[in-house]
Structures are given as C-alpha cells and as structure tokens.
Amino acid sequence: MWDLLNSFEHTAFRLEVRDRYDESDEAGSLAKFLAGEPDDLPWMQEWLDLVREAREGGRSFSRVRVVTVPLTDYSRFGLWCAQFTNEAGEDIRYLARDQADVAGVPKHDYWLFDSTTLVRMDFDDADGFLGTELITDPSQVVKHNYWRDAAWHHAVRRDDFAGQQHRGRD
C-alpha cells in the first residue's frame, strides 16, 4: 500500500465509511483528546510528511469521511486531526451518513489512485484492519470513480463541517 501512496502520479482519493478504526498507534492520542490534554501526534508525522512531499511535487491527496451525526468520540477525534492533514495539503471533506445513503455511496472503504487504480480496504466487525484488495476490473474502477464524484459533490470541507458541529452544540 505504501508503494502506491508514494508512487501515484496525480491524485490519491480515500473514501472512509466507518465510525471507528481500531488503530493501535492512535490509541494514546485518542485518550489524550478525550481527556482534553495536548498531544503532538507522533504517530501522524510520517503521514503528514508524505502529504507535504506529494503536494510539493504537484500531487494531491483528498478524502471523504462518511460519518454518523451526532459524531462518535472517534469521529470527533478524526475531525480534530484533520486540521493538521489539511494544513499539510490533504483536502478532507465530511459527508453525513444519511446523505451518503441517498447519494448511493458504498459502505466500504477504498483508495483510488489516478482514477485508474482501485484498492478496496477490508475491516472486521471489531473495526480491525484485515487487508487490501487490488481491483483491476475496469467496470469496478469506473463505479468507484462515480462514487468518489458523488461523495465529493455532497461532502463539506473539513473547516465548514467542524463549524457546523460546533454550532450544533450551542
């Protein structure tokens, strides 16, 4: 997977549809976030460097996160972390789950590289990452391009979404 993340030519898009990911390297930062403690996000630095290097080389990362509203603690943490990836150059947008359902967005995660290379990501029922599957069927690649465009069309920029969530708590 890291080979693809480092070698795409123009665009890398990720669709995330889960309300939680069981990532052991995030656990400490999630606990600090929930406790209101500061954190320098050491587990995220490699990703931020990758995004910055890609941007400097004229390549772009983008992502749509499908979330349940009101947000879970994990999704609130992800929204907070996204400010740093946005600063690094990744364009992260948010789409409420009910809107994603109406738009026909799939219920599985995937990466789409240069609109031609599709990698489906599989998770177990406990939110653990199982692995990836490279999909080469052209009809599936086209479908996932369509779903990317539908999700992107309905999604809201991270900062706008964060503002909406903050206003919703007032």
From TrEMBL:
DUF6879 domain residues: 2-162
Pfam family, one: DUF6879
Superkingdom of this protein's organism: Bacteria
InterPro entries attached to this UniProt entry: DUF6879 (IPR049244)
Protein's recorded name: DUF6879 domain-containing protein
